[in-house]
Amino acid sequence: MQGIWMTVTGLLVLGTMSAFGAPQTVCTKPNDNITIANLAGINAAGYLCGDKIFSNFTSSGGIDGSVFIREINTSTYELSFTGAGSGFSSAFTFGYTVAVDTVNFPLLYISQVQDSMLTNRAAGGADSIPNASTATVTHTPGGTVNLDAMTAPDQNGLANMLTQSETILFSYNPNGNIASQPAGNFLSVDYVASQTQIPEPLTFSLVGVGLVGLGVSGHKRRVKT
């Protein structure tokens, strides 16, 4: 079943690549990175960073800003979205898909995604945290992570997901639900994806057969004696 799921996931990634062309290669070694100056300039085919493909960028609320993608190391990748100018004081959404390059790395799975958010007060000049701003990050598959600017830069995440394609949607609420605190300006949101490697089912099968063989051989020796 796992092998079938890997094949289906790989085909879906290939389908996305063929529909828009090959993603642009932006990271080939740790600490490589790219900054896309504005959301309107994002490549429709996405970006290949190490063994991850970042694509399907979406947004609502008339926002703009820069997207930063980085290979931290061979098992950890980062994507940040930073608001243009001094940030936003209105509600908006920002989303994308991060997927394993299953053509070249079929045994890699995303095991964890950490989310964090930074905001400041909508008025008063200098950065001032906390404020009432909140955000909801929906992971598919996975679940929902709530970020609260009262403890900004708040960080939370989902672990042990073991997926090869993760869709992330960030929804920002500048007013939140804490009446005693002022509204906030959005500054940035940051995602860090970690991964794990899962052995092929065939490997497990061969190991199992070997252990059974050792057991049978030992039994025969005991019978002869």
Mean pLDDT figure: 82
How many DSSP H or I helices?
Answer: 2
What is the molecular shape? globular
> The biggest beta sheet, please?
7 strands, mixed
Strand content: over 45%
- Protein structure class: alpha+beta
Q: Tell me the span between the first and last alpha carbons.
A: 43 Å
Helicity level, as a percent range?
10-25%
Instruction: List the helices and strands in order.
Output: HEEEEEEEEEEEEEH
According to DSSP, the number of beta strands is 13
Return Rg in Å. Answer: 22 Å
Spatial order of strands in the largest sheet: 1-3-4-7-12-9-10
| Contiguous runs where pLDDT drops below 50 for at least 5 residues | 1-19, 202-210
Description:
With 225 residues, the chain is α+β, with helices and mostly antiparallel strands. The protein is built from 2 helices and 13 strands, in the order H-E-E-E-E-E-E-E-E-E-E-E-E-E-H. Strand 5 (65-73) and strand 6 (76-83) form a beta hairpin. It starts with a helix and ends with a helix. Residues 1-19 and 202-210 have low confidence and may be disordered.
Task: Describe the SSE topology.
Blueprint: H1 2-20, E1 24-27, E2 33-36, E3 47-49, E4 52-60, E5 65-73, E6 76-83, E7 92-100, E8 108-121, E9 134-140, E10 143-148, E11 154-163, E12 165-173, E13 184-197, H2 201-224
Parallel strand pairs: 1-3
Antiparallel strand pairs: 2-5, 3-4, 4-7, 5-6, 6-13, 7-12, 8-11, 8-13, 9-10, 9-12
Briefly summarize what is shown.
The protein has 225 residues and is of the alpha+beta class. The protein has helices at residues 2-20, 201-224; strands at 24-27, 33-36, 47-49, 52-60, 65-73, 76-83, 92-100, 108-121, 134-140, 143-148, 154-163, 165-173, 184-197. The protein has a seven-stranded mixed β-sheet, with no helix packed on it.
